[in-house]
Structures are given as structure tokens and as C-alpha cells.
């Protein structure tokens, strides 16, 4: 465990971000951001006026739903009007096909997906309308499984929990009619953050049906309830429902023979229940005494833990002081909590304070302090020095394809922390780009290089994109000729804006990363988008650029490096 924890700490330190801006820069940035946001809204208003000229109902619905979500804070009346129009488009797309039109039949699953997306977008602003929208657009002759239905309802419940926790509870309870599911765990977690009382009610409902879920023999249900107990114990451990759940697990364990130390645990139930023994003891220590030998801890850091989840959330949304306040709350996770504090400091470039805390903190292993000092020095060096010569030297000793992958990966890791180093690595990677496996892989990496140039505000971001757009125009024209041969790219003569097919996946990749072009130079990115030959692709590109400005860069998963 200690070796794994050290590995986690060093990984956290290796992910330090860009240095903090000065106060005057922050003020200027806010003024610039507001002017940029107004430009983005203007683009969206213009696109909204163009939607009616699109021939594909699928494209009209997709564009309209996206635009309505983005302009709601700016022009609620227009957004409501657009969502109403989108509702009509979706109802028409899902309507029973009396003419046996294969094109309409093929598009219906996409309208099902748009129905789901639109419900969640409306739910962000008007929870009651979102529920009404789902009722109005329920397909009459398309089978949607109970599982898919419940997943959508729980997603919507999590979206609306902040605005209407009572409605969220009602939606969550609806899904219990089909049993328990993993999706109910993040739901109760989100609901608890918004309304402790409603979360307690949902916990009570889940516990009431536990005896009917055959936990002892249905492993999936067992794992859900085990995870539920660990998830809610820090905040709802004194609730009557939680105590009832612990009593129920105690009954199951004793009936299974887990209290006998010589019992042959053939299906592993007794071992798995061991993680809840401390909770069960606090409820009824006398009855649980025979089970005490099963007590074990979760496999931190690789085993899920609610404490780590809370740390991750506070790291993303809170301050260094917020993280420091959490350390006494979770003494068993002290090293992890301290590592979050240090990473937070590195994220804003406060290396000196990071060193101060690393020295003042008490660590499980004394050697960690020395290793942390080295890691902080390394993180500071990446920010302050040009480390490209070392990386280029290693790349020169590698095969061309391996060298490209090394340069591309290192440029991605360093990114905006040191633009000088990143640009040199990207320049070298660009020279090796042709060595990447041909066809789609080459274009994907070319787009990836352009995106990384954008992240460091390099001119090459847009010069590369000019050739990429020319290439994409050629591919789109060729795909249109082959429509219905290898893939269905067109709908009513318009490009079907999904990720289907090789060309569709490239355009989707570009759309998903449009934010980086928008934040690099919105006006130039907007002008560049006019080079797309097809109007509908140009409109989608401009939509994604505007959304990129309004939504900002996507948040990187906290443990992205570990997950890879």
C-alpha cells in the first residue's frame, strides 16, 4: 500500500499546471472574456437564423438543441422558442413511419439520442419542462429498455437536483420500480449535496427493498449495496436506514456462516463483507463480534473510496485551505490529503509554499519528504527551463515512429506550463508526422498537433488547420460520392453530423476540440471555419467554436494519468 501511495503522490506532483496570473492580468482577462462571450452569442444568434434553411430534420434538431442550451443565459425567450421547435422536430423524427421510408427508419435511433440530450439540456434551466418534454416525446413504437429509461431518468435527476431536489427524488424513486442499479449511487451522492433530507428518503427506499434483491446470491446487487454503504456512511451513518442496512448485512453474514473462522468461503461473500465490519460493529457490536476477524480495509488508492471522491471534488472546486481543513476529517487518508494540497499549490505555480508544506507535513514514510522535494524541483524545472534538448536527444535514438510518439506525448504533458519547450517538441513531431501509420491515423495526429499548438498560442495552430480543412473537404466530397456504399453520410443531401464512419469520426474529433482554437484566437478560428465547403459542416464548426468560448476548456479528469 505504501509503495502504491508513493506512486500516486509522484503522479499527482507530475501533473502541475500553468503558473498563476497576476491580479492585473486577471482583470484584463475578465474584460476580454466578456467581450469574447458577446461575440460568441452573436455567432449563435446568427446560426439560429440559419437553421430553418437546413434540409435535414436531424440537423435542424441537433443544431437547435445545442444553440438553445448555449443561449439560454443570454436570451431565455429565444432559447425556449428554439427548444419548442426542437421538440416538434424530435416528435416528427420519432413518429411511426407509415411509408416505410428506410432513411427515416435509419435516423430514428439518432432522434432517440437527441431526445435524451435535449431533456438534459432543458433540465439545466427548467426541470419541470424537461420532465414534460420526455412525456411528450415518448416513442410509441420504439422499444426503449427499462435500463436505458432509468439511466436517462437518473441523469436528469442529477441535473435537476440543484434546482428542484424534490423532483429529483421523485425521478430517482421511479427507477426503483425496476430494482437497484449502479447509476443510483452517483444520484444519491449528488442529491445529498443538494438536500440531505431527500437523500435520506432515497436511502430509506433503497434499504427497504434490499431484502427483495437477493443480495446473498446476486453479486451485482451485493456490490451495489456494499458501495452504497461506503458511499453514504460519512454523512448518513447515523440515519435509521443506514443502521437497518448494517443490521441486514449482519444477518446475511451470520446466516452464511461467516462467523465461523473455519468456514469455507467458497463464493467470497464473507471476504467481501469484511469491508463493512467497522460500520456494522458501531450498530450492534455484540452481534458482529463473531465477524470481527473478517475486518479489512479498501485497497486505496486503487480501490474506490468515498473519502477520495470528496478530496477530488474539493480539489477541483475548492481552495488550498479547503483541502487543509479536510485532512483532520480523514486521518487514514492523511498522506493522500496532503498530496492534494501540494498538487493544488503546484497547479498555481506556488512552488515555495509547496516545499514548505511538504516539509511541515507528517508523512507515513520519512523518505517521502525527500522524494517530494525532488518531485517539486522537477515540476519547477519543467516550468522554468527549456527541457527540450533532453527529450530530443532521447527521440533521436529511437525509431521514427517511436520518436514521434515520444515527442507528441511529452508535448501533451508539458503543454502550457512551458510553451517554449512544447513548441520545440511539436515542431520536431511535425517533421516526423508522415511516419505515423497512414490514412486516418495521420490526420488524427495532425489535428492533435494543431490542437496542442493552439494550447500554447502558437501561429502554427492555424497554418496547420488550413491544410487540415482542405484535406477534410476532399474526404467529405469522396465520402459523399460513396454514400450508402460504405456508410450513410448524407440525410436529404446534407452531411449527417455524427461520428459515424472514418470521416465522421475526424470531424467529430475536430468539433470536440474546437474550444482550443476558439480560445487561441476566436476571430481567426471563425474566419477559418468558412473554408469548409459544406454549409452544414461550417455551421457546426462555428457552433462548437462559440460553445467553446462560453463553456471554457474541458476539465481534465483528476486521475487521467492513472486511468491510462
Task: Tell me what you see in this structure.
- Among the domains are: 131 residues, no CATH class; 127 residues.
- The protein is 69% helix and 1% strand.
- The protein has 30 helices and 2 strands.
- It has a two-stranded antiparallel sheet with strand order 1-2.
- The longest helix has 28 residues.
- The chain is globular.
- The two termini are 20 Å apart.
Spell out the key features of this protein.
single chain, 564 residues, mainly alpha, two-stranded antiparallel sheet, 2 strands, 69% helix, disordered C terminus
Radius of gyration: 27 Å
Mean pLDDT, all residues: 87
Structural class of the secondary elements?
Answer: mainly alpha
Percent of residues in beta strands:
under 5%
Shape verdict: globular
Distance between the termini: 20 Å
Oligomer: single chain
Q: What's the total helix number?
A: 30
- Biggest beta sheet summary: 2 strands, antiparallel
Number of DSSP strands? Answer: 2
Detail the poorly predicted runs: 1-31, 559-564
Helix content: 55-70%
> Strand sequence of the main sheet, in spatial order?
1-2
Summarize the structure.
The protein is mainly alpha-helical and 564 residues long.
Write the layout of secondary structure elements.
Elements: H1 2-14, H2 23-50, H3 57-71, H4 76-94, H5 102-123, H6 127-136, H7 146-160, H8 165-175, H9 184-194, H10 196-208, H11 219-236, H12 240-255, H13 269-273, H14 277-283, H15 285-288, H16 306-317, H17 320-326, H18 334-347, H19 351-360, H20 367-384, H21 388-396, H22 400-414, H23 419-431, H24 440-455, H25 460-481, E1 490-491, E2 494-495, H26 501-512, H27 514-520, H28 522-529, H29 535-551, H30 560-563
Helix pairs in contact: 1-18, 1-20, 2-3, 2-29, 3-4, 3-5, 3-29, 4-5, 5-6, 5-7, 7-8, 7-9, 8-9, 8-10, 9-10, 10-12, 16-18, 17-18, 18-19, 19-20, 21-22, 22-23, 23-24, 24-25, 24-26, 24-27, 25-28, 27-28, 27-29, 28-29
